[in-house]
Amino acid sequence: MLDSYHLQVLERSLDAATLRHRTIANNLANIDTPQFKSQQVIFESFLQDELNARAGNGKLEAYRTNQRHLPFGNAGVAVPQVVSNPNNFIQNSGNDVDLEAETTELAKNQIWYSGLTQLTAGHFQKLRSVIEGGGK
Amino acid sequence: MSLFQGINTSASALTANRLRLDTISSNIANAEVTRANFVDGAWQPYRRKMVELSPQTNGTFDNFLQAAVGTVSGSQGGQGVKVTAIQEDNTPFKRVYDPSHPDADQDGYLLMPNVDPMKEMVDMISASRSYEANVTALNASKAMMLKALEIK
Fold first, then answer.
1. Which residue of A26, A110, A113 is in closest CB contact with B77?
2. Distance, C-alpha B123 to centroid of its chain
3. Which of A44, B16, B44, B95 is 20 to 30 Å from A15 by CA-CA measure?
4. Helix (H), strand (E) at residue B49
5. How far apart are CA B136 and CA B133, in angstroms?
6. In terms of domains, do B3 and B25 share one?
7. Whole-angstrom distance, CA of residue B32 vs CA of residue B28
8. Domain Flagellar basal body rod protein N-terminal: where (chain A) (predicted)?
9. How far apart are CA B67 and CA B142, in angstroms?
10. Structural domain of B110
11. Do B18 and B63 sit in the same domain of this protein?
């Protein structure tokens, strides 16, 4: 219960939100740097694949008879990936940071992060109420 | 994974943009200066200065650790921006006919700095907007860290 899968997913999502925030901050910092290529973080789709696979309706997953067998399909945990988008509009300076897109992503990510912190806090709140017997 | 790195990244950009604004101020302030350098017995006018930026890519311990442990795939972003040099603009000086000026040559022509106030104003707006965008990112980092402290 203390180390539940629910909490693990929250923790990894918070990590991914932090990474995304850092990536956006770096893109914004280099908004006037010539030849700079912006980066994006992909995470939610990987997490969704993993959750689907766990629920049993995911993509094909290999059956492993030994722990040392290499995972196949969605057997691993969702890991955030940092990528560059080659289709971004590149300005004359060779820089492809889009100020509007980055600030929008920043705002979205911030809300997502505070939602995750509230869920995490709620998880511990539930644990506390169980420990205290719920009678108070 | 640390949010503090996000703050450092934004701070590096704030410093770089502040330097850009200072350089632009210097260019505008010296737009009429005909005696900036004394070369071979003659005065040279002021030369326009420009800030050269490049991404800061030297990895931190955190980046290497996470790549090794495999908590992130793909190459992680750098740590912001750094100023590599302050370059001088090598475009030719403006020649103005003003024979009464003490720095005019034998033909009565005077060399003036290669500063274009219009260009400086455009650069100034760009630097000031970038500064604002990075302040927004910095405030977001702060808000997120305070949110994380509410987990208890």
1. A26
2. 10
3. B16
4. strand B49-55
5. 5
6. yes
7. 8
8. 7-37
9. 26
10. 33-47+91-114
11. yes
Nearest CA in chain B to A126: B152
> Which residue, A51, A59, A47, is CA-closest to A20?
A47
Please tell me whether residues B69 and B122 are part of one structural domain.
Answer: yes
Per DSSP, helices labelled H in chain A are 5-29, 44-55, 99-131
Nearest to A110 among B2, B54, B143 (CB): B143
Show the tokens assigned to A18: 């932090």
> Cα–Cα distance between B24 and B35 in angstroms, integer?
19
The set of residues, in sequence order, having a beta carbon less than 8 Å from that of A12 and lying 6+ positions away, is: A47, A77, A78
- Per the CB < 8 A criterion, the answer to whether A104 and A19 are in contact is no
Q: How far apart are the first and last CA of chain A?
A: 22
Count structural domains, chain B.
Answer: 2
ipTM of the complex: 0.85
Query: Cα–Cα distance between B35 and B42 in angstroms, integer?
Result: 9
Q: Are residues B27 and B37 in the same domain?
A: no
Judge if B110 and B131 occupy the same domain. Answer: no
Q: Which two tokens stand for residue B130?
A: 């970038």
Contact A79, A44 (CB under 8 A): no
Query: Per-residue pLDDT for chain A (136 aa), expressed as one digit of tens each?
Result: 666 888 888 988 999 999 999 999 999 999 999 989 899 999 988 888 888 877 776 555 566 777 677 665 544 578 888 888 887 888 888 899 999 999 999 999 999 999 999 999 999 998 888 888 866 5
A18 chain-B contacts, CB cut-off 8 A:
1-3, 6, 144
- Cβ–Cβ below 8 Å for A15 and B126: no
Distance of CA A136 to the CA centre of its chain: 37
